[in-house]
Amino acid sequence: MENDKDLELVGVDSVIDSLSTLIEQGSEKIVAFISSDDFSDLLAEIKELGAELSKAIKVVKIIRKSASIPDKLFMHKMERYCAGLVSIPSSKREKYAAKVGKKSLNKDSVFILGVLNKIEELSKIDILVRLFEAKMDEEIDDQTYRRMMLQVDRTMYSDILFLKDNICDDSIKIASVEEENLLATGWLIFAGIGIGTATEEGGNLYSYTQTAKQFCNVVFQSNLTINNNTSPMMGGISFDIVE
């Protein structure tokens, strides 16, 4: 495929097909190919990986190995994500692929590649794999999956760990930088104004969103559980702490 003298242009579909095949049939051979120099070259000059990826006609150059240095960070992200996919049982992947069809599988791949291109912390990639598996298992629907993926992308990994360790069903006051960041990235929502007492000041109160609690349930197997009891604050769904 590579010519030592010339540069070739290929369609981005080849990248999407590789990831779609991995989701469907993932094997060590595919992972080895994705980790190879040839695939590194293929991804070296991705220009529009994101919302515009599906519209791009020519976004990848196959270059001579001496011509430039591949995007090693993106390769590390791809390798880690693909290794995570292979850890998902092949029977589960094949069943999912057969159910959704090739078109939806390619749509998944485009979306995943867009998130991987933007994400800055490798540690978050394991979370992305877990969310995709949860979608396969129908623990979450497609819209919830995409919403959570985008929130993970814009949230620092250390703040996600803070979310895991501190999420609760109670209203809270913002008392840390982590909570400020979780509010800014959509994990916390305004819940009202607290009335002050003789020993405690009043002020704005916040609660963790339904998405935040569902996320921790899915990703971290937290001890928050959804039941059918009504709760005005959570729109008919409340969460109890399982002792």
Features of the shown structure:
6 strands; 243 residues; disordered N terminus; two-stranded antiparallel ribbon; mainly alpha; two-stranded antiparallel sheet; disordered C terminus
Shape: elongated
Question: Helical percent range?
Answer: 40-55%
How many helices in DSSP terms? Answer: 10
pLDDT below 50 for ≥5 consecutive residues: which ranges? 1-12, 45-70, 226-243
Mean pLDDT: 74
User: What spatial order of strands do you see in the largest sheet?
Assistant: 1-2
Work out the number of β strands: 6
Strand content: 5-15%
Q: List SSEs in N-to-C order.
A: EHHHEHHHHHHEEHEE
Biggest β-sheet: count, sense, barrel?
A: 2 strands, antiparallel
Plain-language structure description:
With 243 residues, the protein is mainly alpha-helical. The protein has 10 helices and 6 strands, in the order βαααβααααααββαββ. A two-stranded antiparallel sheet has the order 1-2. Helix 1 runs antiparallel to helix 5 and helix 4 runs antiparallel to helix 5. The relative contact order is 0.09. The N terminus and C terminus are likely disordered.
